[in-house]
């Protein structure tokens, strides 16, 4: 029986080779997209499997908000540095507790005459007991037990010591603290939140004992500030890991239940009077996925990347299945007589169903082979798009192949079930009538085609929105400065270099045309958010605030709309820079704001906003002094995400950690040589960390290019599947309607009218699909745009563009077949009737 089924399947494929090839190729495209999404999700879901204790390891989370509504942070992986003390006392059954904190992504390390910047983590000794890192030198049981000890990765050891053994050697950290190398490790097993994936939150080059972090802080901060930071309950910078007992005497649910009342038991009453704090815990295997969400979508979107990938991959696969069902249904109409004859000769409905499901299974199997080949070719691009080595996971895990088999079975049923059951239910006498031309109602065909193009329109609209937003980011971020800008990180504690001194020395270079300072690298982190109002009694509004130096707006090329910028000639500005005591400062602190700030607070025109006072909202009972607007500049976005804020105010700061030098475009090489030489002379023990302004933008912008690339790949795939399917469908429909077209032409219908008739029949479901897709695309686009500080307006253009594109694709796919059908001579069609 199986041989008979296979023979019929091959015979039918040879009878309609074009439709069969279209079916296989479109299914292959859909499967390739779905498998790509599955591979990425599988990579993240398999995080930490290389560590023996991963299933028993949890990480604390914190949720924080001021009770007056001035600030709120949703659930975040991390927490205060001192929580572990209370956990040890509360839960002695926990096997291990350890902390990890990022010291700095560009920590300065020196060994002998070598000075480099490395990413360093401060960890407790028990960290190495929880995570069995692959040591190549040293003893993991004692590597971080001694004070001021560090463990290097193999690459970091080579950069600091070359081929010499690093064990027992000293390194100088931030030109302040000496530590001893006690171990060398290979990279952590991937995937991991400690690994090298683009979104891994705790990638490291060096692990340092936690006391090293405290020692570095002691050099940069006063004892009072250090004591405050060490007991700060509003901190979320430290990850606290707990290892549950091996005997299962405590589960993850038990830990979460205990933490529900943790804040009430341990957080001081004066802190709880001003804020709401809640602690929780998540499995360590979910931390990498949290990092992916932060990297790509941020918490502002309210949906995880894995969810989006699943839905988008499933959407494209659904388009492919709908396409198969549509073509198979159209092909089945030609086989109704064959099916009727088989039924008349005694074939049971189950045999007819088995025949068509087998054909669907064969098409799915061929599509899987093509999809696997396409996926293998696309893996490098997928790795770049998602920042992960998904191929290693996809090929190494047997569970992946079981999942692929399950997907193949589901696709076979989804794609082949309707035509199989529809044919099996047709009575033999009806199937043998020559007038039977269609299976199922016309409305179902319309819905199938409409669903295909609705999904394509949804993705095309999102692609247009993300492309518009990305273009706006480039347009508004880089500005109109023609001379390159060089950003130089200068944290005073390790470099021992005052920002004013660096400013003066760089300004002497002939190739440097301007120097200023700012707090933090642009686009690399969320700028601080303040709450301000136009009177002490008015409700505050969320505003971004950035500390800058003199000449900032001139060097950055930001247009002044009204008033003035900060000037050294102004006593009030000098007082702000010198951080005079509040009682000694007679005038309110001067600030410069952007146009959006003026509009948001209702100050009228930029000129009318000059000398207006604004007030910061305080998280406590202490009133803050007012601020006076002295200048208004054009909107300039130096961050992508606004944390809910839409405008910016600039304040004067001192000893800012990023120096910005504008260099002459005619001699960039000479400028960089001069900057490097100046730095080497002023801070010889610390390697310079400099980059171009647009390079910093490109590094951060890559995140949004990934999203645009993701939508683009999926949208174009969905459109390609729909177009190919519509082409094949048009071929079958035109063949099925040959007699009708012949009669119409015999009755005087022109070729143009027949083409319009056929095109109109295919255009209606495409239009219907767009109308259904528009509300869903609008909601998804609005959620995405809400992430940005200054989102582009959501107009009708993306939806009109999606409609125009899908209609154009439909016309191109159907037009040729419609024209061929319209040109046939009536006599050739009706001769044998």
Description:
With 833 residues, the protein is α+β, with helices and mostly antiparallel strands. Helix content is 52%, strand content 17%. The protein contains 30 helices and 22 strands. The chain has a 6-stranded mixed barrel with strand order 3-4-9-6-8-7. A hairpin with a 5-residue loop joins strand 1 and strand 2 (72-77). The chain is globular and about 100 Å long.
Q: Biggest sheet, open or closed, and with what strands and sense?
A: 6 strands, mixed, barrel
Helix content: 40-55%
Strand arrangement within the widest β-sheet reads: 3-4-9-6-8-7
Tell me, rounded to a whole number, the average pLDDT: 78
State the distance separating the first and last CA atoms.
37 Å
Strand proportion, as a percent range, falls in 15-25%
Q: Categorize the overall geometry.
A: globular
- What is the oligomeric state here? single chain
Total beta strand runs: 22
- Give the uncertain stretches in residue-range form: 580-585
The chain-level structural class is: alpha+beta
Number of helices: 30
Radius of gyration: 33 Å
Helix/strand layout:
Layout: H1 2-15, H2 17-45, E1 57-66, E2 72-77, H3 83-90, E3 96-111, E4 114-123, H4 127-130, E5 135-137, E6 149-153, H5 154-161, E7 170-173, E8 177-185, E9 206-209, H6 210-220, H7 223-230, E10 238-243, H8 252-259, H9 262-266, H10 269-272, E11 275-283, H11 287-296, H12 305-334, H13 336-344, H14 349-386, H15 390-396, H16 398-425, H17 428-431, H18 442-478, E12 485-489, H19 492-495, H20 499-507, E13 512-518, E14 528-533, E15 541-548, H21 552-556, E16 560-563, H22 571-577, E17 589-594, H23 595-600, H24 606-609, E18 613-616, E19 627-633, E20 648-652, E21 658-663, H25 668-682, E22 690-692, H26 693-736, H27 738-746, H28 751-785, H29 797-823, H30 826-830
Parallel strand pairs: 4-9, 6-8, 15-20, 17-19
Antiparallel strand pairs: 1-2, 1-10, 1-11, 3-4, 3-7, 3-10, 5-8, 6-9, 7-8, 12-21, 12-22, 13-21, 14-15, 14-18, 16-19, 17-20, 18-19
